[in-house]
Amino acid sequence: MSASETTVQPEEKQIDRITAELLRAKARQRVVYLFIAAGLLSALIFALGFIAYSNATRIEVAPEEAQASATLSVVDGFAATIGHTVYALSGRSTVEISAAGFRSLRKTLQSTEAGRTIRVELSELPGELQITTAPESEHSRWLIDGQLVAVAAALKHEVVAGDHVVEIDNPYYQKKSLPVTLQRGKLLKLNVDLQPVEGELKIDTQPAGARIEINGDPVGISPLRLLRPGGSYQIGVSHNDYQSITENIEITSSEQSIERDYRLALKEAVLHIDVAPSGGKLLLNGKSVSPAAPLAVKAGVKNTIIYLKDGYFSQQKRITVAAGEERRVSFSLKAEMGKVSFFSTPSATVNLDGKDIGQTPLQLVLPAVAHRLLVHKKGYRSFRKTLTPSSKAAQQVRVTLQTKMQARLAESPQRYTNAAGITLKLFKPDSTFVMGAPRHEKGQRANEFLRTVKLSMPFYVSTHEVSRAQYGRFRPVQGAGNEPITSISWIEAALYCNWLSQQEKKTPFYTIRGGQLQGSDITSDGYRLVSEAEWEWLARKASKAKQSRFTWGDDTTIPPKAGNIADEHAKGKTSHYVPNYSDGFATVAPIGSFPAEVMGLYDLTGNVSEWVHDVYTLVPGSGQAVEVDPLGEMVGDTHTVKGSNWRSGRITELRAAYREGEKTGRSDIGFRVARYVYGGENGDE
Questions:
Q1: How many angstroms separate the CA atoms of 516 and 57, rounded?
Q2: Rounded distance between C-alpha atoms, residue 465 and residue 603, angstroms
Q3: Distance in angstroms (rounded) separating the CA atoms of residues 157 and 128
Q4: SS3 content of the chain, % helix, strand, coil (to 5)
Q5: Are 604 and 671 in contact, with CB atoms under 8 Å apart?
Q6: Is the pLDDT confidence value at 426 over 90?
Q7: Residue 614's closest CA among 679, 514, 539, 522?
Q8: Residue 685 has what pLDDT?
Q9: SS3 for 639-652, per residue?
């Protein structure tokens, strides 16, 4: 080794290594510091960018007490808060505003509110008040600032912070008034001692010396005066032979002095009642009671007991009993009978309570009870009555029975309008007349046979010919509704009659199958066509002193307004007309256009001829024999037409005896309806 070389000692080498390590550590530390500085710079740049590009909204908090302690926090959306400012990058965000002593409030900010100052107002938290009493009482009424808030043993209530007055009003304790101060969101607990109300109880009785109990405990003899705290008490009063009294009273702050003067009534006695016969009515002092149960009655006074039963003499007893006494009382009634005599014209059967007794005249002795009386005889309307005989006087029952037909007739109105709007009039003929015309009568035709006829059955007939409107309820038709229905066949008219019967639940008069007449039910009171004999009787005899040739009389000169016939207006429209006569109509007229004729019907003369019930025949009458209520043959394909019409211009057609036969309808043929009051031959209910 040369002299110029330096020798390095081991200690020096160790120092160099340490120095190198320190230098490397410092270098690493500088790198970390650089990274931290870069991160802080980035965060600062981001925050400045966030503030620069976000929408800042200022939140102004009210009231002032909440402003100082208010804090904001974002609960929804991309936003941040600094102080009372909200920076939002999203279009919509929600913040929660909180302050000590106030209710938190959430506010959703819309994009339209960005850059604005938004005012929010927080509501105060109430204070909570809890008050108990000693002793506790569920009757306590709690009032805060004069307003009732609860009725309970204790109070638990939220109240606005501040000064208040609490009142405790209990009927059994002295009122309390408490001033309290409540803080927002704080609980105030109190316990209050209640002072009982002191009351005085004064009890007198008549008679004196009654035993007094309070709540079941004996407290003395009346008259009595006691001091008691407020509360509810049950007073019991008892005295030997007198009825006990129980009453509930209350000593309260509003009623501290209670006075009672009890008038004691004697104890009731008990009556046991025996009655014969049973089933009657028992009255105790005018009130209905049951004899089956013991009866409690007043002691020391007269009690009136009456026992009654229909058919027996009543019995009355007046009874005075001692207090607490039990007594048995018996009633035994004697039957009451009454004499009743029964007379009837004609002699008939007397039925009492559903049992036939005998024939009138009849005399009976009957129990004085209500009996159901029926006096009946075959073919007659029965007589009914409730009858009560009496022992005080004999009774007579006199009855004149009507036949069923007489009774039915007596009940029938003189005029009525049916469901189709048709007005019908009642006729009671009971007379004999001659149908047809003798050979010498001017205008007579060979088919007008002389017949002696008696009409005995009362019947209804329509005052007008059936109109198109009335027929239209059965089948639709054309033409003016107030004109008579025409151009229908006899069978169609008969079907209309059956339809009317069905509307009123009457038995149809005609039996028709397949559009063909099979027969007639002459016992029916259903609707039918007027019989030929009835039609002619109405036109010639009804309401007249003597029978006539025409509806207006025997004079061949037609009176004005006699009816719608072939007059001057029909000249050229009909084969014949009546000169110098004018009715105002060239053809058919509305029903009822002319005055009613003497019998009270309209248009028997003129307007339209009419279908009648009878089958048309050319068989002469049977000499002098009287035909009663004739209806003609039962079946046939040709039926009789009666009466003149607007085409009639000769004496022949204008006469009431005029008749013709038709199979089909015509434009100058209509009809009117009729019905028996109680059915035809052998008619019955």
A1: 103
A2: 7
A3: 6
A4: 15, 40, 45
A5: no
A6: yes
A7: 522
A8: 40
A9: EEEECCCCCCCCHH
